[in-house]
Amino acid sequence: MKIKRVIFGERSLTKVAGVFMSRDGAEDAAQHLKQAAALADGQLFLVGPSDGSTPNSRAFSSKLEPEQAGIWHTLVRAHLVAGTTGVVLGILLYLGFVVAGSAAVTSTPAMGLVVFVFFGGVFGLLVGGLLTLRPDHYRVISTVRRAIRKGRWAVVIHPVTQAQIDLAMSVLRRRSDQVVRSL
């Protein structure tokens, strides 16, 4: 869990959402969850049809990705950590080829080192970009977007502890039509 905190800048790394047919059902579940899980105001959002009235609605995006500053921290951290890790792995791979006596590396050692460090860094930065995109959030966001386009409601929770995740999943499974979560 500590490696996640090094890479990601958001407090809440997981999103949990439940889809409801009516506003009343969503509000009831939201109230129950807020009390049962001791959620702060910025951790639980009710998302309805009016929130997604335009394709890039600010209301929708602020409810599904409320930690905008954290996203920027994630961008910087993920690229630094993954890029550095890629460079280190490139150096270790280079050393492995040197120890193995590879003619391609031992005939031009400086060029070999540059190539391994360069490609290690590039692959690391690509991984950093993938981590920044947070593909695990896409499933939650697309499910909520489809639901509100159909006139349904959603409760979106941004839990910060495993206990909050477990409680949110349990409550929403009992009360909602569909439950989705990110990693």
Provide key terms for this protein.
elongated; four-stranded antiparallel beta sheet; alpha+beta; 2 domains; 183 residues; 10% strand; Alpha-Beta Plaits; 8 helices
What do you see in this structure?
- By secondary structure, this protein is an alpha+beta fold.
- It folds into 2 domains: 12-65 and 136-181, 2-Layer Sandwich (Alpha-Beta Plaits), CATH 3.30.70; 71-133.
- It has 8 helices and 4 strands; from the N terminus they run H-E-H-E-H-H-H-H-H-E-H-E.
- It has a 4-stranded antiparallel β-sheet, sandwiched between helices.
- The radius of gyration is 22 Å and the shape is elongated.
Short description:
The protein has helices at residues 2-7, 23-36, 58-64, 68-100, 103-106, 109-133, 135-149, 162-175; strands at residues 16-20, 44-47, 153-157, 178-181. With 183 residues, the protein is α+β, with helices and mostly antiparallel strands.
The biggest sheet, with number of strands, parallel, antiparallel or mixed sense and barrel status, is: 4 strands, antiparallel
CATH topology category name of the largest domain: Alpha-Beta Plaits
Q: What is the total domain count? A: 2
Distance between the termini: 12 Å
Order of helices and strands: HEHEHHHHHEHE
Number of discrete helical segments: 8
- Please state the second-level CATH architecture of the largest domain: 2-Layer Sandwich
What gyration radius follows from the Cα positions, in whole Å? Answer: 22 Å
- Find the structural class using helix and strand composition: alpha+beta
How is the largest sheet built, in terms of strand order?
2-3-1-4
Helix content: 55-70%
User: What's the overall geometry?
Assistant: elongated
Mean pLDDT: 87
What is the number of beta strands? Answer: 4
User: So what's the CATH class of the largest domain?
Assistant: Alpha Beta
Strand content: 5-15%
